[in-house]
Amino acid sequence: MTQITDLEFKVQELVTLLEASKQLNSNIEMEEVLENILLQMVQIVGAEAGTLWVLDKERQQIKASAAYGPSASDILNIELELDEGIVGKVIRTGEAQLIEHVASNPDWTDRVDHSSGFVTKSMITVPLTVKGNVLGALQLLNKKDIAFFSEQDIRLAVALANQSALALHNSQMYDELQRMLLSMIRTLAKVLDARDPYTAGHSERVAKYSLWIAQKLEFDAHTCEELYKAALLHDIGKIGIADDILRKPDRLTNEEYEAIKQHTVIGADILSNMEPKDAVAHAMETALSHHERLDGTGYPHGLPGDDIPLFARIVGVADAFDAMTTARSYSEGLSFRLGAEELIRCRGTLFDSEAVDAFTAILADCDYELERYEK
Questions:
Q1: Nearest 5°: phi and psi at 135?
Q2: Is 158 in a helix, a strand, or coil?
Q3: Are the beta carbons of 64 and 52 closer than 8 angstroms?
Q4: Three-state DSSP class for 231?
Q5: Residue 208's pLDDT is what?
Q6: What percent of the chain has pLDDT over 70?
Q7: How far is residue 222's CA from residue 31's CA, in Å, rounded to a whole number?
Q8: Which band of pLDDT confidence, cut at 50, 70 and 90, is reported for residue 301?
Q9: What pTM value is reported for the model?
Q10: C-alpha to C-alpha distance for 202 and 335, rounded to whole angstroms
């Protein structure tokens, strides 16, 4: 129990840090940050094109993460070695470069131009630096209307880069916190699942199935991510269920079943104590309501139809399917095919119709996998 409590505290800390970092930048999504930085710089300096390169320290490469101009789509995702080209030199040295005749520069590599078909004549390359750490570099290519960039252009680019680097840093910090939070939630889910040998991996499978449903329903990336995290935590309330009930190899008595039903209320209560509330609102609703059923026969509150939160309706389908297809000491579990048939049978009465249709369509597309799981 101490291990679980420690993980709860760590999750709480990460949720708080995540929300705090989110306030540092209104355009917190990495892609938006990079595009906004680049567009701002190109327009103000008056360049024909531009590329924003981000340093990947783990892979020891520099990646074109945003591009603007006639060949932008061909430049995106090109990767350079750390010692390659003018951009590599600027990132290594942390010093800006203004180059009038690119082709005659000894550090110039034409690999990017060759890949994109763009012809670079002159350029400004400035580092993106925060607290002495170079995060990447920004290149502005071919001054519009006149032949070359000026010293005033490079001063302006450096000033803008200093501000823009902070936005990039904030976005990277946010992404890192997201990864840490997800990793910690996964660890907590595994610790919970490990208490019951018959449900090992249950939370991860339910999260995976829920994500498949969301993607099939064409939810946006942020909503899919929030649903995935909520699904991982849907059974967190089992922390408060006694081991002799949770790990019982036989069928539960009515009294024991009533006790285990309380995991929904316990889970919502645990998550309600986390701050800020907005960061865990979906997870709290899902923990509380994933056993509600459309006809009002579910628990804990007997909510009917659309009164059940959407995330809980989706996780309810995924959770029921995994429960039906998991072997127990008293049941070998259904095949995937029979589990899907049971969802369809209860479609619109117990389970959300759209979620069932999406999930069973995915299962039908994986017919070979269905056959593998036939008993």
A1: -90, -20
A2: helix
A3: yes
A4: helix
A5: 95
A6: 86
A7: 13
A8: very high
A9: 0.62
A10: 16
